[in-house]
# Entry
Amino acid sequence: MKTQYFTATSLDGFLATEDDSLDWLFTLGSLEESSYPAFIAQVGALAMGSSTYEWMLRNADAVRAETGSAWPYTQPAWVFSSRRLPGIDGADIRFVQGDVRPVHAAMRLAAGTKNLWVVGGGDLAGQFYDAGLLDELILQVGSITLGRGKPLFPRRLPSTALRLLDAQPLGTGMVELRYAVNRTGDAAGLDRE
# Structure
């Protein structure tokens, strides 16, 4: 079981524009033509921040057009928010706040032998990293720059923090990079492949 941060990012390291738009992403390709279908089949639970969740609520029609459903996940989802947010009928959503460690433990129980997905945003993924709970980053990097926006991973990482496992082109507009997170004392991350 791995805890993975799978996301798309602009070439200059932004997940979304300053006003949380992902319109730039939809022009670069289709989920079905990426590694996403194989990835999501191995996910047993997911976590997301309130901005990501609220984007999904605001863009339910676009999500439905891309995935076939306004809430495309059958897995239980933990949404981190300090505000009260509306639920979605039929979705297994658990609203939480605070430390990611007890939530990660609950996610592991729910996921069984499957992986955990930190959907976004970048700061939430950083909190899982800070707690020593993040195993992989899977980044689909688009051939576009945004100039500014919501950062991919607002943390400073030393050059030894990540180890490139794989790089695959996705059509002519994206590349997927897969990194293992190296933790101090774990033989350069070699035990988590």
Observations:
- The first strand starts at residue 3 and ends at 10.
- Residues 185-193 have pLDDT under 50 and may be disordered.
